[in-house]
Amino acid sequence: MNALRPFYLAVHPDFFGQHPREREVNENSLKKLNNHLECLQRPGHRTHQPTQLTFYVRETAGNASVTQCMNTSGFRTVSFTLQTQDLLSTVVNILKSCSLSIDHVQDSKVAMDLPHQNETIPFSRPIRWDKTYYTFTGYRDPEEELDCVQQLEPTLGSWLKKNVSLALERLSVSLPLRDDLQRLKTELCQQLEVTDIRWRKSWGVAHRCSQLHSLSRFAQQNSAVLHNIRGCTIIFAEHSGMNAAGQIMLGTVDVHHHWTKLLERLPTYYDLHSHVCLLEERISFLLGDIQFIYNEDLQPAMMLEDYYRMLTTFHQNFIVNRPLFHPRSLKGLQIILEKGSSAPSLLKTGQLRVPVTCDPTALQWFILRHAQTARDYLRKEEELKMEQEKLIKVCREKFWLERLYKEQSVSSEQMVQSCKRLLEEQTELPRIHLCISHFYSVLQDGDLCIPWDWKQ
User: Fold this and answer.
1) pLDDT tens by residue, 31-65
2) Cβ within 8 Å of residue 416, ≥6 positions away
């Protein structure tokens, strides 16, 4: 996005090659920011919860006079919260937080960058300064700097050559912890009689082991309430409770007292989850047997109480203004219910994303217009996932990879493209844990991350 070029030039990870900690922080924050900006540009985008981001900012022409919060490496630490719901306000907030100029945003150039704000901008002609302007004023040409950043991006072969040994070194250190993690998880699943233990965030292996040890101590001291969790899935997350899928979430910052209170209330949660399932069935019947799904890969974490309130509002609205669908005519389609009052939309993965306050008549016509396309998308996504699994197996065998996986933000289509390109490479990656991501990085436990669309 042109309006954010000064910001990207100040925080791009390629400028932090000698500072791995700062580089990793910026990479992780950029992933969240780019996802937020992408969602804001979609028609009928959903409302986001406020998200705090932290960046290390290098000095550029636009912020050279700012010296506060400077660390010993010469970078400033900047934190800001993504909470605005329109693209223009978000861009301005980011630039101001980093002490960068917003003059170019106030110019008509934003009419090109911010298509959803055109009606509030008086002019639509973008301003492009002549190269002599930068020569005369001494300012840096943002287009030239962006080209330099892109040229700095390494090829896959050169980056792997420099970082495989570091990954193997970190991996060898983490292997005992990985074995300990798997052993602890297996023992706790058997002891607590739970289906699975998972994590909401991508914490490191040492952090996960610590959380399992904490759960083990809790189990020894609170055996009386553990019978309530049999047959469930436990997820370590930011907060304690039960999510919309009926899974038990244990807050990693909560003390054991909070866990005890949660497990004591589980019978009430189970009753509420039964009501949720019943409501989904009733609404599904009204909508031609369409299936309601809750998928954390496609939507933010949602607590069971919030989901129940949304379903109740949605159901009451449809009881009053009941749409007309033939029974079972939409069987096989999937719907994701979300907060807010935006327009319904169709995801590339085939799900119909519907706001809780959607007008029943408008929804009826939307579904009828997009039903066949949604079925095509669902079928294509299923085919992509099958192809993805086959390609992962082939890549693992060819390169002797210990593991090959992708981040949640990488789609199945992007993963398939990445695996096909990877098979054309001539390299050796024995015992490596390879993650298809959006940036180059070596994680603390030795996992190698490469962008899915890496440069040849």
Assistant:
1) 888 878 877 766 555 556 677 788 888 865 555 44
2) 384, 387, 388, 391
